[in-house]
Structure formats: C-alpha cells, structure tokens
Amino acid sequence: MKQDILIVDDEADIRRLVADILTDEGYSVNQAATGEQTIEIIHSTCPPHLVLLDVWLNDQKYDGLQLLDIILKRFPDIPVIMISGHSTIETAVSALNRGAVDFLEKPFKTDRLLLSVTRNLENYRLKRENAALKERLINHDEIFGESQISQRLKLLVSKVAPTNSRVLISGGYGVGKEVVARSLHKQSRRTSGAFVSYNCALKRKEDIECDLFGNEDGDTRHQGLLEKANKGTLFLDEISAMPLAVQKRLANVLQEQKFSPLNSTRKINFDARILSASAFDLKRLIDHGKFLEDLFIRINLISIRVPFLRERREEIIPMFDYFMRDVCQIYGKSPKKLSAEAIAALESYHWPGNIRQLKNLVEWLVIMERHNIVESSSHISLKDLPPEISGASPIQVNWMKGLDVMSLPLREARELFERHYLTSQIGRFSGNISQTANFVGMERSALHRKLKSLQLNDDSKNTETL
Fold first, then answer.
1. What is the largest CA-CA distance in the chain?
2. How far apart are CA 145 and CA 320, in angstroms?
3. Are both 294 and 331 inside the same structural domain?
4. What's this model's pTM, rounded to 2 decimal places?
5. What is the pLDDT of residues 448-461, one digit of tens each?
6. Quick one: 163 and 238 in the same domain?
7. 122 lies in the same domain as 256
8. Are 294 and 253 in contact (CB under 8 A)?
9. Tens digits of residue pLDDT in 304-320
10. Domain range enclosing 333
11. Are residues 302 and 319 in the same domain?
12. How many Cβ atoms sit within 10 Å of the Cβ of residue 288?
C-alpha cells in the first residue's frame, strides 16, 4: 500500500517540485496551499502518513507553527517535517520543541529530503506496529481459558452477543471485563461498527459529559462518543464513577434514542449498543444515593460476572505463557519458561490485581532481564519473582522460621512438614482435593486418609470443590 504524504506550501512551484520527487519514489501525494485546506485534509477519514509543512505561509489565519499544533493535537504520532527558506535558529528550535521530527532549509537537496522522509516514515511504521502489538496484548477480544468457569463464561457471551441487549459486566479490578465487552462486540451483529471504550474512573468528572455528548461551541465542534459509536458498541467501564447529572442524561438518551451535544439544540439519533462495567456493587451505590436506579435498570438487561483469577488457578500458567510470548515479541526477546518452584509460587499467590497484575508481572520480568536486573537464563526461577509472590510458594518452608526442627524426632518433624505442605497445596488448588491428589502423586482416597491422620480432614471437607 502506498504511503500518503501531504505537502503544505503556499508556493505552487515548490509543491509541484516536491510532489514530482516523491511521486517518482512511489509515494501518494496530496497538496495544500492554505491552512484551511490543510485542516480539511487532516480531518478527513484517511489522514496522511507524513506532512511536509512550510513555516511561513501566505495565510492571514494560520502560520506553519499553528498548523503544526493543530495537526499534532489530533494525530500526535504523525511525523511532521518543517521546511522554510528564511527561518531563524529560534524558529527551528521552536518547531522541534513543539513536536516536528525534522527541519529542512530551502533549497534542500533531493537526497536530504528523501532521507528524512524515508527515515521518519519508517519510524512511524515501527511506532504503529509496536502500538498494534501492545493493543493486541492489552485489548484482545478472546476470553482466555479452558476451565469450567471460563467455558461457562464463553457460552454465556456467545448466547448474549447476538441479542443486541444492553449488558452490565461485573467483576473485580483487572479480571478482564473489557475483554468480555470486546468479545460481545465481535460476536454481535454490530461487529462491522466501531467499538468505543471509555473508562469513567480515569477521566475528570467535569469532562465526562463533554466526552460522551460532544460540544458545539461556535466554530469548534467536538464529536462525542455517543456519536462516534453510531452503528457500533459503546463500552462504559467503571460506570459508577459517572456523575449523577450525566447518569440522568444518559438514562434519557437510552429512553428516547436521541441526544443533543452541549451548546446545541441539534438532535442526533442514537444507535449504539451500550455495554457497562463496574467493580462496585451498583445496587449498594443506589441504596447510598450514588447511582441512579433508572439508569441501572436500563443498562442491566443482562448481567455477566467475570470471575477472579484465583477462582481459576489452573489457567494462571497458560495465561503467563501467553502473555510472555506477546511481550517478548514486542521487545524482541525469546520467551522464557518457569521453574517448578516459580510455577508453584504463581499458582499459590492470591492475585489481588487479577489478570492485569499477571500481565504486568510478565512485562516487568522481560524489562528487568533486558536491563540485567533479573538474571538472564533459560528459566524464570523463584528468586526472579517479586517478594510478595515468591513468598507465596508452598515449596518454601517459611513455617520453619523460629522452630528448632532439629530437636524434633523424625516422626514429629515429618508430620509437621506434611501438615504444612498439604495445607499449602490444598490452598494452592482452592480446596480441590482431586487436583491436589493428582499434583502430589497420591490416590484421592489415600490423600483423604492422610488428611484424616494429620487431623486436617475437617478443613478439607469444608473447602473441597469438585
């Protein structure tokens, strides 16, 4: 696919000369002589991959530096090369400080122009590829896991997705609520439309209304997310953080299927599926007057709960390996395996941050090894893990600290070890006796007899899940 370059210069001869050079090199070229033409092209559906922008334009409304600010405000990653025939060092420094990637003085040599264009387009391509990889890692739409809990979740999503009903997704921080939302969108009849994600908790409360509804103030028009999500899906994450006044407006939109931007009487038809998520119990917030019951009723036509990571411990290591492959691809590293002790620690840890915390751990390990902070080897060992996780390993006999084990007879020392070892393993598998027996290499009936002999049978019966 040809790369698009926009040339902005008030001199027609310069534009034609540069356009001919770039066209001969296989680029697709567009031209603009004024600021308004430039803004129109930049705001089109297909913005350019690179902009060549003259500093001094014969334009009463805009100069090159002002256009630079406008371009980078809308598309901060687009490389902008400034060109000028009569600029000072101060102007060049100002342009570079404001985000330009290069500054060329007229008349410039063809080789110098092509070198700058080629280099900056390549940097832009690499940035986009890197961003796409991170997007895939962070915003994937496949629900991970083969456990019974994950299979039930996948089945529910597959049934709900085609219905077009509004869904409220609940679950703790980092469990993957947005992944469920993206999976619902992907399997819906709106999959060809946009998926627009908005986290209310990460925004200033005073900005949320404008972000959702848009603003039409004089010549300035800001398109809101309700309009951007038209024919698609709008995912409102942590909706409990939305101010009550905005909740009321949103409830009215869901009732009337129309809305008006701020500072406008213009009515816009609303046609998007609303998916909402919250880590808080919205019913309790309603009782405390912090969430509108009317909105709750409208967004909660179907409820989906995403389980905690500790509820599906058998998926921790497969998830770790999956994230390890993706992160290593981003950083150009070879994936590493976990030692047996490290596996035990990861499976025993309680994961308060859930899948997000696991993902962050993988990236931390790769970065630390890259900077020689974590020992470089073919395996990740227990000592490579953060202390709060490595301390969770049932293999570590932390229970021995302060005990004079050497003074005990062999039988008592062995019973003491077995009691703590089996207690840790049962906790590691969330009370599942069958999985514990399989891991420690015992028949299920033999493990029950051992637990009874160690006077652990009552706890195991209370915690066993089959």
1. 97
2. 12
3. no
4. 0.62
5. 888 888 877 544 44
6. yes
7. no
8. no
9. 999 999 999 899 999 99
10. 310-390
11. no
12. 7
